[in-house]
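For anyone still unconvinced, we reproduce a single protein record, the chain in one-letter code, the fold tokenised, and leave readers to judge:
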Amino acid sequence: MAVKILSVDDENDLELLLTQYFRRKIRKGEYEFVFAHNGLEALTMMLKHPDIEIILSDINMPEMDGLTLLAKINEMRNPALKVIMVSAYGDMGNIRQAMNNGAFDFATKPIDLDDLSVTIEKAIEQINYVHEMQREHLQLESLKTDLAVASEIQHAILPRVFPPFPDLAEQLDIAASMTPAKDVGGDFYDFFRIDDHRIGFIIADVSGKGIPAAIFMAVSRTLIRATGIRGGSPSDCVTYSNKLLSSESVDCMFVTLFYGILDVQSGEVVYCNAGHNPPYLLKQNGDVEVLSVSKDPMVGAIDGIEYHEERFTMEKGDALVMFTDGVTEAMNTSFEEFGENRLVETLEGVTLHSCKQIIEAVKTDVASFTKDAEQSDDLTLLVIKKL
């Protein structure tokens, strides 16, 4: 598209001079000139031609001078609109004032058209730069909107109603929380009914952050849930999920996870830990025990892995606290990690609390430790308590 240039001057011969000098660019469709004879006419022309991008304005004109016109243009707050002021060489006071008030450049009379041509080209470069920044800004705004929607979708697919199983409310307490480091995260948790007395539950951490991790998180969560809800053993579920995810993994993405099945009646928990942080068992007597460290690798990285399972029994009043490394690896401004020792200290003080209270206590202590430091990783907790 042609760059539209408005010439504002009360001397009629300037119109002929400009159209003659720039005739080739006008013929090629590179420049298009419109003309006005004072500031008032210029404002009218700008309403008629809102795509004007360069204004060549004389300073001394009847009805409305160039400095007043410049002030009116500044009120439009259009960074892509460039004003080149024109005045007599001896009128440097007004020229200086125009430059201080935001004019892009100036030219002196009699106009050196070769120099003016260079000035116009410089203005066009700046205009193109502004347009590019505006396009990028719109793209960023669009991306920001998309991320907000993605964040809402991500939270919507995670269980958020507690207690989740009303008929088990007197036997089981469950609470969970996921706080992403960015707009969307790679951590997730889930729980679901397998049958009348068994509950499947999972906490996981996808490699990486942002949109790629969020997409891989959604795929992993859907796959593991769909597999686990059929009632197979945790090791079979994780082995099958690894087979599918490793064959479809992009950029070597993987997920660490802890998947367990709780028999609400007996309290027995059968679980498979695939490279995830070992959970803590808060005993009714106040002790805090850590489950065994995983010997199996993360899911989605290596095909053909056979995963193993272990088991333990939850007594009445015991709580199982699962978390992602965003908790223990949360750093303060001195780059110190919150660590497992601080986590254990927090848990020792809340062994008799509800699941929600346990989660809030951990999040509060982590926030108090990190203070003004930026959150570096997703922070997710899942707590299950046998009542």
